[in-house]
């Protein structure tokens, strides 16, 4: 057994030595970016898909499980491919120009976003909308920091919260088809299903009655 373990330890030492080589850092960073995309995508999507599927989707247990696995796979694959593409293009641009400049990040991410997230499907839509809300917050803070807009005298968040909730509920009530399906499901559960009950069972215990009473 000891003799069989020695080649493995030698291989491990060689790999670790390779990982320490600075000249391979850019290529190795691309590979680790792909790895982190896979792991992070699974961590984020699996619990979300589990909850949303069992709360709102109908079908057999096998169908639900398949839906969860498919959503998790798609999210992980897309994040991994984007990280791989983005970091690869960053390294290529930096090597061609001899240094890294801010526009490299923008261009690399634009190309990666087009190639990986350009398909208009539910997973990509959720990710893009998630990023859009963060971008708007980030750009607003940056505009204040740079002096493009004055520092608010009062916290504007209460007004923002009021406008966001007022707008989304107006859309839900009168233009529901414009909202994303998962948001429609969540709001239907909260604001439409709560208008319907028959007895104590579907008033407090269940959301909807499953028998034919």
TrEMBL record:
InterPro entries xref list: Pmp4
Domain of life: Eukaryota
Family annotation (Pfam families): Tim17 (PF02466)
One Gene Ontology CC term in the entry: peroxisomal membrane
PANTHER family with a match to the protein in the record: PEROXISOMAL MEMBRANE PROTEIN 4
Official protein name in the record: PXMP4 protein
